[in-house]
Amino acid sequence: MSCGEPHETDCSEVLDHLYEFLDSEMPDVDRDKFQHHFEECSPCLEKYGLEQAVKKLVKRCCGHDDVPADLRAKVMGRIDLIRSGQTVPEHDVTRAPAAPQES
């Protein structure tokens, strides 16, 4: 999407990194560029407002579900393995082991 107007920061760059902006996961200098872009580009500002509203709605409707403790432990264990450079098992560590079959 582009509004057709020239900007210091291109509309496609802004929209490609919109969630990083929404989640405050970008350097301040980039946030400032994006904020300036939104001030001069109404189509991108509209898209930003829409995505912000959707994000708030999802948080309100789904943000209260607790993650099961065993799943959290398995995921954190896998993250620790990856960070330490160890080999990560190919099987799905989030699934319970299959029950042994009787012969």
UniProtKB/TrEMBL annotation:
Residues 11-44 form the Putative zinc-finger domain. NCBIfam families: antisig_RsrA. It comes from the Bacteria. Pfam families: zf-HC2. This is Mycothiol system anti-sigma-R factor. It comes from Streptomyces cinerochromogenes. InterPro entries: Anit_sigma_mycothiol_RsrA (IPR024020), Znf_put (IPR027383).
